[in-house]
Amino acid sequence: MRMLINVPETVVADGLRGMAAAHPELTVDVENRVVVRRDAPVAGKVALVSGGGSGHEPLHAGFVGPGMLSAACPGEVFTSPVPDQMVRAAAAVDSGAGVLFVVKNYTGDVLNFEMAAELADEEGVQVAQVLVNDDVAVTDSLFTAGRRGTGATLFVEKIAGAAAEESAPLDRVAALARQVNEASRSFGVALTSVTTPAKGSPTFDLPPGELELGVGIHGEPGRERRPMMTSREIADFAVDAVLEDLRPRGPVIALVNGMGATPLLELYGFNAEVQRVLSERGVVVARTLVGNYVTSLDMAGCSVTLCQVDEELVRLWDAPVQTPALRWGR
Amino acid sequence: MRMLINVPETVVADGLRGMAAAHPELTVDVENRVVVRRDAPVAGKVALVSGGGSGHEPLHAGFVGPGMLSAACPGEVFTSPVPDQMVRAAAAVDSGAGVLFVVKNYTGDVLNFEMAAELADEEGVQVAQVLVNDDVAVTDSLFTAGRRGTGATLFVEKIAGAAAEESAPLDRVAALARQVNEASRSFGVALTSVTTPAKGSPTFDLPPGELELGVGIHGEPGRERRPMMTSREIADFAVDAVLEDLRPRGPVIALVNGMGATPLLELYGFNAEVQRVLSERGVVVARTLVGNYVTSLDMAGCSVTLCQVDEELVRLWDAPVQTPALRWGR
Fold first, then answer.
1. Which residues of A touch B1 (CB under 8 A)?
2. Residue range A165-169: average pLDDT?
3. Which of A310-325 are b and which e, b meaning 16 or more Cβ less than 10 Å from the residue's Cβ?
4. B8 secondary structure, DSSP code
5. d(CA A256, CA A138)
6. Binning pLDDT at 50, 70 and 90, where does residue A303 land?
7. Minimal-distance CA residue of chain A relative to B261
8. Which helix (H) or strand (E) is A278 found in, with range?
């Protein structure tokens, strides 16, 4: 194993301890695995809570802070958090204005967030949920009924988070989150497999010189394998897969995302090709974000997420955000 | 090759095109390979220019913007930029207040920046230089006479950049930059080798189950090879190597840096161990930054950089910065 870890059993707790040390602006409950923005609950503000398996960092804990998530619940690596975490997070951040759960569409996450919503409701917290299911590669997958939730999670959390920061009510924040999810589509590509600490060897077998088109963020199979392609060819394939499903009738925000082990130099080069395809297809790009945001541990590869936007969504995208992984504005 | 590229020959140009598309707040001259903050030259402000081989992204172009670099000159992968780039950058950003060249200590970079300083001087640009040489692993190395320049570059560019933004004169900005370099030490560890696009195979041979202690950011040999160590053991070794050389008599800023292919989850876990060692050694940590900032393409591994600081250096560290890779404050 070429991992920078102590033992597999403590990887998530160790990561949270290190996050606490680096980010005094967050309250990190290592034992209960809840990361909360320090000033929560914020009076009159709807709270956003998300979570999911660890191994996708900075998603979700790296998106906690003003303008985005109120709290995040990290599970074990590639494993849903448990309802107790979500209920605890909701209680910590609810100001009385209600809580939106942002849930990626994986069976475990959906069940656990559903149970947490019921429990929180019993405790008097008003909860709404949004399901993120943007990955066009496959319908149904290893851990999913329906499409998988991937890069659009960032768009949902940023844009709904901005609306919440502006004191929009829960039904408006939830409606915006659903609008963003419905306007977003993703497609991912693996150049290598991924190795989890618990397994210690690649979770799937990808021979050198081949790539997996449509891979999931846990290494789930995609649409097909092909011999190695150029950045240009990959961009053509991924962007066309997204556009075929999304068919945008207006400008888009583009996320050109690294899976974790692809150099930033290569990601920027890939972005040049993504922009070229979009231009050739007549799609106007309003904003672009390039970097490692929704990752899969040590997987090399990339994904493209497009979100069709109107002026209001662009305004909310541009609104200030202050989190460990995403920060701009004042 | 498991790379997201077209052909090795266009990797740097492709990356710059993609950076231009993602960052309209920068002026990217792809042909001449110069990245400049859009509002340069800023009247009355000393300009900071840096550069070096590509493959260490976000260093340096990702640090261009208000509060940090005025311009960056990316060379070919792991190859110094040429004097023409630096002279062009200096001319683009000089307001008349002078230019500071931030130079990592590698033979090619030193020679080329020296030549550029002479040429710029002939064109009437007042130039000062600071040499960054913080890596305690080895004295002299593959491409270096004396210590290599690595993570401290970020500290020098951030802190001197903040002073320049506050309109400090050139001699003050240069003195601060030298102070930061002298107060900083680094130590890096490789868990895998690195593969450059041009070579297409690992630049050095590191068998699975071994690590290279003291590796350079181009894969240069370090102090020794050992069988795989835990995060705790690596932190002990790296931090002690830094402290032995630095012997800080006050608080430090810590950079816990990823080499590019190590998951952020692992880096945060490593940070927990770094903080533990520092605490055990009685070193107070004023600020901590965790992430992939001074990378080595697809190398897995990490480095620790410590900078001994006083109140003024912490104030300049905290000052606003708005670059692609580092942003905080207003």
1. 228
2. 98
3. eeebeebbebebbbbb
4. G
5. 20
6. very high
7. A261
8. helix A264-280
Mean per-residue pLDDT of chain A: 97
Question: What single letter denotes the amino acid at residue A327?
Answer: R
Nearest CA in chain B to A22: B288
| Contact check, Cβ <8 Å, A22/B77 | no
Per DSSP, what are the bridge partners of residue A48?
A100
CA distance B305 to B156: 12
Out of B182, B204, B226, a domain closes at: B182
| Residues of A belonging to the active site | 56, 218
Is A265 found in the same domain as A200?
Answer: yes
Percentage of chain B surpassing pLDDT 90?
Answer: 95
Measured between beta carbons, which residues in chain B are less than 8 angstroms from residue A278?
none
Structure tokens given for B207: 């068998």
- The tens digit of pLDDT for each residue in A196-221 reads 999 999 999 999 899 999 999 999 99
Does the N-terminal peptide bond of residue A8 adopt cis geometry, omega within 30 degrees of 0?
Answer: no
Collect all residues of chain B within an 8 Å Cβ-Cβ radius of residue A231. 4-6, 14
pLDDT at res. B1: 60
Nearest to A269 among B18, B288, B289 (CB): B18
**Those residues with Cβ within 8 angstroms of residue B245's Cβ, 6 or more apart along the chain or in another chain:** B136, B185
| Closest residue of chain B to A263, computed from CA coordinates | B297
Strands (E), A55-105: 71-77, 99-104
CATH number of the domain that residue B177 is part of: 3.40.50.10440
| Domain limits for position A301 | 184-318
What CATH number did the domain enclosing A270 receive?
A: 3.30.1180.20
Q: Any CB–CB contact under 8 A between B193 and chain A?
A: no
With a cut of 70, say whether residue A1 has pLDDT above it: no
Interface test with A, best of B196, B268, B271, B314 (most A CBs within 10 A): B268
Cα-trace Rg, chain B: 19
Q: Are residues B178 and B190 in the same domain?
A: no
B205 Cβ under 8 Å from any chain A Cβ: no
User: Domain count of chain A?
Assistant: 2
Please report, for residues A131, A175, A282, B238, the alpha-carbon distance to residue A252 in angstroms, rounded to integers and kept in the order given. Answer: 21, 19, 11, 45
Distance CA A309, CA A317 (A): 10
Detail the DSSP E strand segments found in chain B.
26-29, 34-37, 47-54, 71-77, 99-104, 127-132, 184-190, 210-213, 224-227, 252-258, 285-291, 301-308, 321-322, 327-328
Choose among B18, B275, B328: nearest Cβ to A268: B18
- Residue in the block written with tokens 């409950």: A29
Q: What is the ipTM of this complex?
A: 0.97
Q: Which of B182, B202, B228 is the last residue of a domain?
A: B182
| pLDDT for residue B144 | 82
| Cβ contact A130:A178 at 8 Å | yes
Active site residue B218: yes
The answer to whether B207 contacts chain A (CB < 8 Å) is no
Partner residue facing B290 (CB), from A18, A267, A295: A18
B30/A contact by beta carbon, under 8 A: no
CA separation (Å) from A70 to A26, A132, A323, B69? 10, 18, 10, 33
Question: Is the CB of residue A275 less than 8 Å away from at least one CB of chain B?
Answer: yes
